[in-house]
Write a structure and sequence with these properties.
CATH architecture of the largest domain: 3-Layer(aba) Sandwich
CATH superfamily of the largest domain: Glycogen Phosphorylase B
Bound molecules: NADP nicotinamide-adenine-dinucleotide phosphate
Number of helices: 7
Order of helices and strands: EHEEHEHEEHEEEHEHEEH
Helix content: 25-40%
Radius of gyration: 20 Å
Oligomer: single chain
Strand content: 15-25%
CATH class of the largest domain: Alpha Beta
Shape: elongated
Distance between the termini: 17 Å
CATH topology of the largest domain: Rossmann fold
């Protein structure tokens, strides 16, 4: 690593970011100094190529200070589509400092014939939709905001997450499954059948790695309560890692 290496901040915390980090190191290790930033809430994060930093920056001010200190010259936001705060902060910071920012996001899921989707804006709306709909609910939204479902005292939840939370969840009756995607269709079908699932509650995260559950739900004829993506400020956006590599190559070219 020399001072000619261009510092690039990759906002991560997703499998997409980890995959992109590997591609970046493979293609640009002679040109960039890659640092992936994660929020630091997962107990055992997957190994990541390049440097890793963990924990919040301290709002926009903290992020600005970090970007100045590290002389970061490019930002790629490959966080989860629902990680709206860090994406907003990154967009503001890039504009303030004039640092190019690219958002790598997942292709939104499209409703298919046979889907029984109920689209809602928030977890609170999801709770209203679920109450009359089902008792055995498969939940893939993560554990934030679960207390909005705690009044559903007749409901039983199957909850899939990467690592078991330290504390009990604020739900009266649930079963935890620890698993990291991608998930295949056969597995999702089996899960719906084995746990006699009557409805799926999910976020409209998009992408391929976790889409099989929607096919399995369609096949099983069960409703899907789908929480819409938060809106983000405009930014250059791509959906494929190759496009992010091209974006970096173009910026590096201008710096020669
Ligand atoms: P968020 O609401 O956008 O972020 C809340 C705060 O956490 C941010 O303001 C920031 O703190 C810190 N933070 C988030 N991502 C960070 C990162 N990559 N590096 C450093 N600090 C970060 O995000 P969230 O929904 O809590 O998600 C946290 C992380 O989990 C993200 O990296 C996201 O990609 C991943 N994730 C989220 C979801 C989801 O459904 N939300 C699902 C899977 C993975 P400061 O203001 O102090 O900088």
């Amino acid at each position: 690593m020399t001072r000619d290496h261009v510092p690039l901040l990759l906002l991560g915390g997703t499998g997409d970011a980890n995959a992109l980090a590997r591609c970046l190191i493979n293609r640009f290790q002679d040109r960039i100094m890659l640092t992936t930033s994660i929020a630091g809430r997962t107990a055992e994060p997957a190994p990541i190529a390049g440097n890793l930093r963990s924990g919040g920056f301290g709002g926009v001010e903290g992020l600005l200070a970090y970007l100045r200190d590290t002389k970061t010259a490019m930002i790629i936001d490959a966080t989860h589509p629902f990680a709206a705060q860090i994406s907003r902060n990154a967009t503001i910071a890039s504009k303030v400092l004039g640092i190019p920012l690219l958002r790598l996001t997942r292709v939104p899921w499209q409703r298919q014939p046979g889907d029984r989707w109920i689209e809602v804006a928030t977890m609170t709306e999801a709770a209203v939709a679920l109450a009359p709909l089902a008792r055995r609910i498969w939940l893939t939204t993560g554990t934030n905001e679960l207390s909005t479902l705690s009044h559903l005292s007749d409901a039983w939840f199957l909850i899939r997450m990467i690592t078991r939370p330290q504390e009990a969840l604020p739900l009266s009756d649930y079963h935890l499954l620890e698993a990291r995607g991608p998930f295949d269709l056969a597995g999702e079908r089996a899960l719906i059948s084995r746990y006699r699932i009557e409805a799926l509650l999910t976020k409209a995260s998009g992408g391929r790695a976790t889409a099989a559950k929607l096919t399995a739900a369609r096949e099983a004829g069960i409703p899907v309560v789908m929480i819409a993506r938060p809106t983000l400020p405009d930014a250059a956006t791509v959906t494929e890692p190759e496009a992010a590599l091209d974006w970096i190559a173009r910026i590096l070219e201008t710096r020669r």
